[in-house]
Design goal:
Elements lengths: L1 H25 L4 H23 L11 H25 L11 E4 L9 H4 L4 E3 L3 H9 L5 E6 L5 H14 L7 E6 L10 H12 L6 H4 L3 H7 L3 E6 L9 H11 L6 E6 H10 L7 E5 L4 H11 L7 H12 L4 H5 L3 H12 L17 H23 L9 H17 L15 H4 L1 H30 L6 H26 L8 H26 L4 H26 L18 H27 L8 H26 L10 H31 L8 H21 L3 H14 L7 H11 L2 E4 L2 E4 L2 H8 L23
Parallel strand pairs: 3-6, 3-7, 4-5, 5-6
Antiparallel strand pairs: 1-2, 1-7, 8-9
Helix pairs in contact: 1-2, 2-23, 3-6, 3-9, 5-6, 10-11, 12-15, 15-16, 16-17, 17-29, 19-20, 19-26, 20-21, 20-26, 21-22, 22-25, 22-26, 23-24, 24-25, 25-26
Amino acid sequence: MRWRWVLTWLVCAVVTIGLVALWARAVPEDAASASSVVAAVVGLFGVMAMWAWRRNPRHGAASTPVQVTDAARILARLVRRQWRNEAALRQLFDPAPLPVVWEDCPLRRVTDHRQLIGDPVTCRADQADELAATFRGLPRRRLVVLGPAGSGKTTFAVLLTLALLRDREADEPVPVLLSLASFDPSHETVETWLRRRILADYPQVADTDTFGPSAVVDLLADGLVLPVLDALDECPETGRAAVLRALNDTLDPHTPLVLTCRTDDYAAAVADADVLVGAAVVSPAPVRPDDAIALLRLATPPGPRQEPWDALVEHLAREPEGAAAKALASPLTVALARAVYADAPGDPAELGDPRRFPTAEAVEHHLLDALVPTLFARAHRTGPAGWHRWDPHRARRYLTFLARGLEARGTYELAWWQLYHWVPALARPWRRAAVWGGVTAVAMPLWLGSFYVLLLTAADAQWAPAEALMWLPTTVVSVVCMQCVASWIAERPSGAIPPTTALVLIGLGGGLAASSPFFFVELSRGSGAWNALGTAATFAGLYGFPALMALLSSGLPQPPGQPQRGALALRHWRQRLPAAAVTVLAVTLFGGVTLAALAGGSFFESDSVTAWVHGMAFGAGTGAAQAVLGWVRSTTSPGEFTTPKTSLRADRLIAVVNGVTGVVLTGVPIVALNSGTGVQPYLIWQLLIGVAALGLTGGALTLSAYAWPYYCAARTVFAVRGRLPWRLQTFLADAHRLGVLRQVGPVYQFRHARLQHRLAGVRVPAARTAPGRADAPARGRAS
């Protein structure tokens, strides 16, 4: 709080000194100037005092118990809806879940003391009641799910989540399935990560008007959230032990928890850290061939297409230890065989050919290679209306490019807002500064040329090339300077420069860079140094102040770590209207004060009344734009969980609204000031080029703070090169509906990690069907 008041007094003091010097030089005998100075400082102090007194919503106010209960109920409904949809797309219940038996893991070194974990655990994944009862029967309701690649760990987590939600009591925790791939314990705590992910994946819970300001914090603190953490093995290898330590050190040992991981990776993490305290550990038994064939038969339409399965059954009976039998012991292979043969006109009997498939690995690779062409060929042939019928070969090429990109970055999550990292020109902060400068340099002549044509046809104006050419370098230099300052700040350690200080530095840098050409132009015209300095100060304010206001609404002009969320809706408008009105009034006063101060400079010769009138008009428009932006950001869509499509739509909406706001903030001040100077030659021309130049600066500045423009740029680059389709989101959505991709909140993943490896050309050893028996003694707390 103290630094807010220090900044308030410092800004007011600087403004006071500047206004006194400015008015004393411009009209030293005008008594109205003194009153303007006093009014400006008082108004500025009032606005900044409101900002300094602003309460942090994380402190003080809290959600009521009723609001927390309602938040838990809504969260449960959203989680249930999300994973029911995902289970349907993954065909987990069509015709039925695969009857995989899960039982106590035989590896002694990964299990805690028997006194802490209770009796041995055995359950079937296809029995929802048994699954939920088994978990609720654990002494601490903590479970680690292990298994090799393709053993159905994620499927188990989805089925357990839905089973617990089906008959959840009001006081039971809500199971929330989250991928651990985005958790870095060196940068955030477990609680912070859980809170961030829940707010990002389920933004409706962040509705403070309905659930209060601390609903998610209270849900976590009261134990009303059951984290179901999937895929510890998808974290960086060096960080898995740190994740285990963070879970043991920061969570209460009695906090319910579910964790999935590959067996070998979990054993390695336990060797470096410790077992998950109080957690039972289960692993799958191999799938019985009869169960696999029975499920595949049920998934195949009755009639002649059942006959090829008979031939495969005969082969399995003759070769119970053959490659096909070993391959079908894995849930992954069963799922692949269903997609390739049961849902398509293929011949499963070919899996019994020992020359083509001498090993289980060969069977798996064949099914992985056939998956994408088979699914896209079927959709191309029989897809419903509204589907884009993708060419199977192109679809495989697109997916191969995505798989290689993910492998190169060591991740399994395809986040659309991170796609710009794949473009070298956008990946580095300093390169992005050059790109934005180049975009401005290209767009500026086109913008000014369109206005010139308009004036020639409508106003018969004369060409003013010198004036127009002066605006071009000014705008480009200003944009490049602000982007360079932002790039320098972005490379500093996190928290080294406070956010407000960073934005002030960027606005100041842009204002000084923009004013320097006008200083030298005035000197070249024979003006005195004081007049040239006054003109430069005026233009520094014209660039710096609007840029700072635009930055306060958008943030640091660098790609964000997460996309923005928001929506256009009138929910809770009665509660939000007073805050919006206060925003409009505060910004109106602030804008009027500042523009009235700028109007007294040497470049503009407006009288005080006109300057105040136009300044207030500008402030009112700016305040309205800021109120709309704040309204959009604080609004969530009812009953909606986050998907890649909804997150992209929300970020695009806020980027467009803030881009228009940036144009208004930086383009209108010069119009307001010039309109009070009386009729001058080519006034309309001056106004339009000013709006074009300054507005372009504001638009580039605000848009560069959002993920959507960078995504559009990266998508365009790859589409031009033929590596990705132009309609990328449509392609990804279709791949998800076909079962090639799976959706986890706002990101996509390949349905199976081994599919990503196979498409990327990464050779991995064949998956084992069950973990081996351990003969090593326990480590750490295990016994």
